[in-house]
Amino acid sequence: MPRPIRIACATESGRLIDGHFGSCRAFAIWDVGPDDITFIEARSTLEADESADRNRARAELIQDCQITYVQEIGGPAAAKVVRAGVHPLRVAPGTSMHAMLERLQQALRKPPAWLARVMGIEAASLARYRLHIEQAEEG
Question: Which residues are registered as beta bridge partners of 6?
């Protein structure tokens, strides 16, 4: 199984994914693997907010993550996050951080195509297409 993926959760409370990307007080950083969920640290956004380009500084703050969960994110900010190599995902207001991470953990066992790409592996659902392409190229 691949190594855990790193997740950033925009938070105000520390328990919920209740932050807007551009205004949350912190990102809770987690490593999520198929067998465990590990809290890494809380990263304050105070220094990023002093930057001339706050959204770029916030994206750089979480650039070691593969996914960020946010309550809201604007289009320009989302583009900067994607450029930093992070996949932004919006969640409903009041979403429990732990419940969302547990759902992600379950999805790691048989990831959909988008998550497999984030993980750096081939999705099982796409493997059959690769086989068809290889056969067509041989024949």
Answer: 31
H/E segment holding residue 108: helix 97-108
d(CA 4, CA 86): 15
Supply the pLDDT for residue 79: 96
Q: Cα separation of 5 and 85, whole Å? A: 13
Rounded Cα distance between 108 and 112, Å, is: 9
* 28 phi/psi in degrees, rounded to 5: -85, 125
Q: Which of 1.20.272.10, 3.40.630.30, 3.30.420.130, 1.10.8.640 would CATH assign to domain 5-108?
A: 3.30.420.130
Beta-strand (E) ranges in 12-80?
A: 16-17, 26-32, 37-44, 67-70
Supply 116's token pair: 């497999």
Per-run averaged pLDDT (10 residues), the chain, 139 residues? 86 96 97 94 96 96 97 96 96 95 88 64 57 65
CA angle 25, 26, 30 (to 5 degrees): 160
pTM metric for this prediction: 0.82
On the CB side of 73, CA atoms within 13 Å amount to: 27
